[in-house]
């Protein structure tokens, strides 16, 4: 995608109106030219021949299979090319991918969706087989593939390119929670449960390899977010919850299995507020927490049902 850019000074959030007006009436901090003049020119200037016919930005497609080599060389190749999250992976051999595909009745060449980590880049298409490749790399098994495919079908990246460095959350509902042994109880957000861990990790690997997340090129999070490693992936404890399951409130049947995705900045510990007997103190504590930098509740998300 070939776009014209104009840059504004930072920060914007929390700045008084007079400061923001000075930004608008001032200059582009990158080019030094009047800001609004650049905006008007970018919107009205005729396209140049290069803009009308931009050159291809993506490299030629990689071959489906690599030539035989030593295992350590493959690990180095994946790491050096940015195809991992920085941690060791399970190498996606043809046999392992075929084994993973036993977890779905879908055709390996069926298109699952399109993904991008930034609005400034085209959305990239991916198939069931490509999702299975990333599931293998994450250490998942065929039993986890329906959840991972459902995540892929949301077309939501786990690593949105934003200065704010957002984190993501995936919540699983329905019978599949217990079938694959997900944790919805003690330590559900801790790294002790295999299913929670590999499903969340697969989402990030898909964002890297299928959504083309590249640090400093397409992913521009200023500090990054440690939640991106497995994206707060857990199951709702439907059996002990006083409310209807989340997916039921969203219009799905209780016996359907779904995954819902959300976006936020960080985690707020509400234990202190829960132990307070004065409502006004609870409200004050929550208000202060939500006003702090890098603290926010999750935004409303997308819920997708699973195919077997």
Structural summary, described in words:
It is a single chain. The chain is built from 12 helices and 6 strands. It has helices at residues 17-25, 35-44, 49-52, 71-80, 94-100, 128-138, 145-153, 176-179, 194-209, 246-249, 271-274, 279-291, and strands at residues 111-115, 124-127, 167-173, 233-235, 258-264, 299-305. A hairpin with an 8-residue loop joins strand 1 and strand 2 (124-127).
Oligomer, anyone? Answer: single chain
- Mind summarizing the main beta sheet? 4 strands, mixed
Extract low-pLDDT stretches.
288-300
Q: Briefly note the structural class of the backbone.
A: alpha+beta
- The gyration radius over C-alpha positions equals 22 Å
**How far is the first residue's CA from the last residue's CA?**
36 Å
Provide the spatial order of strands within the biggest beta sheet: 4-3-5-6
Return the string of H and E elements.
Answer: HHHHHEEHHEHHEHEHHE
* Average pLDDT for all residues: 86
What number of structural domains do the residues give? 2
Strand content: 5-15%
Shape descriptor reads globular
Percentage of residues assigned to helices: 25-40%
How many alpha or pi helices?
12
Number of E-state strands: 6
Short description:
The chain has 308 residues and is an alpha+beta fold. The protein has helices at 17-25, 35-44, 49-52, 71-80, 94-100, 128-138, 145-153, 176-179, 194-209, 246-249, 271-274, 279-291, and strands at 111-115, 124-127, 167-173, 233-235, 258-264, 299-305. α7 (145-153) runs parallel beside α9 (194-209).
């Amino acid at each position: 995608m070939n776009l014209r850019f104009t840059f504004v000074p930072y920060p914007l959030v929390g700045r008084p109106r007079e400061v923001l007006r000075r930004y608008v009436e001032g200059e582009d901090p990158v080019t030094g030219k009047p800001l609004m003049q650049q905006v008007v020119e970018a919107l009205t200037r005729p396209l140049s021949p290069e803009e009308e016919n931009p050159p291809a930005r993506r490299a030629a497609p990689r071959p489906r299979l690599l030539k035989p080599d030593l295992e350590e060389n493959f690990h180095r190749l994946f790491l050096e090319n940015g195809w991992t999250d920085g941690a060791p992976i399970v190498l996606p051999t043809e046999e392992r991918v075929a084994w993973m595909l036993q977890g779905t009745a879908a055709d390996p060449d069926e298109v699952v969706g399109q993904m991008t980590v930034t609005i400034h880049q085209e959305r990239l298409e991916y198939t069931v087989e490509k999702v299975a490749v990333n599931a293998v790399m994450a250490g998942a098994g065929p039993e986890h593939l329906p959840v991972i495919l459902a995540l892929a079908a949301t077309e939501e990246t786990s690593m949105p390119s934003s200065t704010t460095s957002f984190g993501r959350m995936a919540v699983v509902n329905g019978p599949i929670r217990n079938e694959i042994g997900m944790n919805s109880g003690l330590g559900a957000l801790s790294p002790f449960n295999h299913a929670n861990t590999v499903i969340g990790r697969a989402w990030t690997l898909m964002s890297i390899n299928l959504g083309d997340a590249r640090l400093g090129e397409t992913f521009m999070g200023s500090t990054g977010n440690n939640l991106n490693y497995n994206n707060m992936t857990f199951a709702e404890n439907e059996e002990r919850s006083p409310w209807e399951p989340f997916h039921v409130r969203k219009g799905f049947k209780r016996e359907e299995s779904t995954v819902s995705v959300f976006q936020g900045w960080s985690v707020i510990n509400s234990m202190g507020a829960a132990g307070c007997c004065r409502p006004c103190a609870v409200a004050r504590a929550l208000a202060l927490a939500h006003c702090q930098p890098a603290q926010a509740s999750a935004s409303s998300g997308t819920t997708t049902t699973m195919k077997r």
